[in-house]
């Protein structure tokens, strides 16, 4: 049974796009559609911490020829067909699932909060104003060639620039987690969930979706909801 | 037990009912469902037969519009419909909106000339312009919002050769001087939709 200390497994979903819906109060809610596709438990990894295990979840399918020999052996030893994407999720001992269990969109409860993790869109080499939100310089009044520059990079002493100083560089493409996004709709026919707001990454990105781990005011699951624990069978 | 709750249906989120008990004045039972099953239910995803591997976003868009199309208003926004049956820029339109979902009888009306239609699937919207007490007023209505109760074309526009009539803001001509339409609007407001 689900307890407050339990942590269910997450899933891998694909960001399919954004649309909108109107809730029962007539308020328009922008939503992101995340679709699951043959999400299965590939293996259960025991860690040095006896009270927690990690579950390796696989998404999609891949041709035998396209899979490397080491991975082919890994899938064969687990008895699962080759998967396109593999991610691990830490779970509590009561939420461990057997290898080969398929996880569908019904794993989620409408109204619950989820965290979505994915690499964000790459922005390329960006200046200091876009990358770090610096103010830049004056637009006029005699400003010479310094409209978007960082300005000073330090003090007279220690007479050097600190490592990690915010400077121009490659922006984006890093893992970002959007926390506590409500699941607005669970569609078991299309095997997708609608999540309020935006999710990092472009369309067709692989998103790690898990039950929210931040418990601030409201619980992760709505009151009175029956949580499919450890997953919906 | 789980199978009866979830099954092959789409389940929509319900907001925290406790927060709204005081404002709506309605009593909700303690065992109220935390989710809503949207109506109507589509047992099969709305994919066209020629689509071998249908794009999930297209299917969702079609399904959302079909579900929100309560009174056939999507015919007003389809391009393949004859101009006399669809909404065009230049038509005089009457819109009745609900002010709140908690009381469906409280409504507001607005009549105006349609100066632009934005066809975006579920986010389809149109702008109506009118001159009210010598002040130009534009209102943008989301066609499939549950708060928009009724959309009626009072008079078809003639002589408008553009999709967006933003020039009417500077050069209205005689467009907003139609007193007969005030009467039409009032009768449309009073008419009961069966």
Notable characteristics:
heterodimer; A: 233 residues; mainly beta; six-stranded antiparallel beta barrel; four-stranded antiparallel beta sheet; 2 helices; 35% strand; globular; B: 194 residues; alpha+beta; SH3 type barrels; five-stranded antiparallel beta sheet; 4 helices; 7 strands; 25% strand; disordered N terminus; Ribosomal_bL19 (chain B); Translation_prot_SH3-like_sf (chain B); structural constituent of ribosome (chain B); Ribosomal_bL19_sf (chain B)
Q: How much β-strand is present in the residues of chain A?
A: 25-35%
The N- to C-terminal Cα distance of chain B equals 40 Å
Which pair of chains forms the biggest interface, and how many residues does each contribute? A-B, 36 and 46 residues
The overall pLDDT average of chain A reads 93
Q: What is the 3D shape of chain A? A: globular
For the biggest sheet of chain A, the summary is: 6 strands, antiparallel, barrel
Q: What is the N-to-C succession of helices and strands of chain A? A: EEEEHEEEEHEEEE
Rg of chain A (CA only): 22 Å
The backbone outline of chain B, from C-alpha atoms, is globular
Query: What oligomeric state do these chains adopt?
Result: heterodimer
Return residue spans of chain A where pLDDT drops below 50 for at least 5 consecutive residues: none
* Radius of gyration of chain B, in angstroms, nearest whole number: 20 Å
CATH class of the domain at 64-193 in chain B: Mainly Beta
Strand order of the largest sheet of chain B: 6-5-4-3-7
CATH architecture of the domain at 64-193 in chain B: Roll
Helix content of chain A: under 10%
Strand content of chain B: 25-35%
Tell how many strands the DSSP assignment of chain B holds: 7
Keywords (chain B): Ribonucleoprotein, Ribosomal protein
Organism (chain B): Linderina pennispora
Family (chain B): Belongs to the bacterial ribosomal protein bL19 family.
GO molecular function (chain B): structural constituent of ribosome
């Amino acid at each position: 049974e689900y307890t407050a200390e339990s942590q269910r497994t997450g899933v891998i979903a694909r960001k399919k796009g954004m649309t909108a819906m109107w809730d029962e109060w007539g308020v328009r809610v922008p939503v992101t559609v995340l679709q699951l596709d043959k999400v299965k438990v590939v293996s259960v990894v025991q860690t040095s911490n006896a009270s927690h295990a990690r579950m390796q979840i696989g998404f999609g399918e891949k041709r035998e020829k396209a899979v490397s020999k080491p991975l082919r052996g890994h899938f064969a030893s687990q008895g699962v067909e080759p998967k396109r994407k593999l991610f691990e999720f830490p779970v509590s001992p009561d939420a461990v699932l057997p290898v080969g269990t398929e996880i569908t969109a019904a794993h989620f409860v409408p109204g619950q909060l989820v965290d979505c993790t994915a690499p964000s869109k790459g922005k390329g080499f960006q200046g200091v104003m876009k990358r770090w939100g610096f103010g830049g310089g004056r637009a006029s009044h005699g400003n010479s060639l310094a409209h978007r520059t960082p300005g000073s990079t330090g003090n007279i002493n220690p007479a050097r620039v600190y490592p990690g100083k915010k400077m121009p560089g490659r922006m984006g493409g890093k893992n970002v987690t959007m926390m506590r996004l409500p699941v607005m709709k669970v569609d078991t026919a299309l095997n997708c969930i609608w999540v309020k707001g935006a999710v990092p990454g472009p369309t067709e990105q692989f998103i790690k979706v898990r039950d929210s781990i931040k418990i601030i005011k409201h619980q992760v699951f709505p009151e009175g909801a029956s949580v499919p624990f450890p997953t919906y069978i | 037990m789980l199978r009866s709750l979830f099954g092959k249906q789409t389940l929509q989120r319900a907001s925290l009912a406790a927060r709204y008990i005081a404002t709506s004045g309605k009593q909700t039972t303690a065992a109220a469902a935390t989710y809503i099953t949207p109506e109507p239910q589509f047992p099969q995803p709305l994919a066209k037969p020629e689509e071998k591997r249908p794009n999930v976003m297209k299917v969702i868009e079609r399904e959302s519009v079909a579900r929100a199309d309560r009174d056939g208003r999507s015919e007003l926004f389809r391009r393949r419909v004859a101009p006399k049956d669809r909404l065009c820029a230049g038509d005089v339109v009457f819109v009745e909106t609900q002010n709140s979902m908690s009381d469906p009888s409280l409504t507001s009306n607005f009549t105006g000339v349609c100066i632009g239609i934005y066809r975006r699937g579920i986010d389809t919207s149109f702008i109506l312009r009118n001159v009210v007490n010598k002040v130009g007023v534009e209102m943008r209505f989301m066609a499939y919002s549950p708060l928009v109760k009724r959309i009626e074309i009072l008079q078809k526009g003639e002589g408008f050769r553009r999709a967006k009539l933003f020039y009417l803001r500077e050069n209205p001509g005689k467009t907003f001087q139609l007193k007969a339409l005030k009467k039409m609007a009032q009768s449309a407001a009073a008419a009961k939709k069966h």
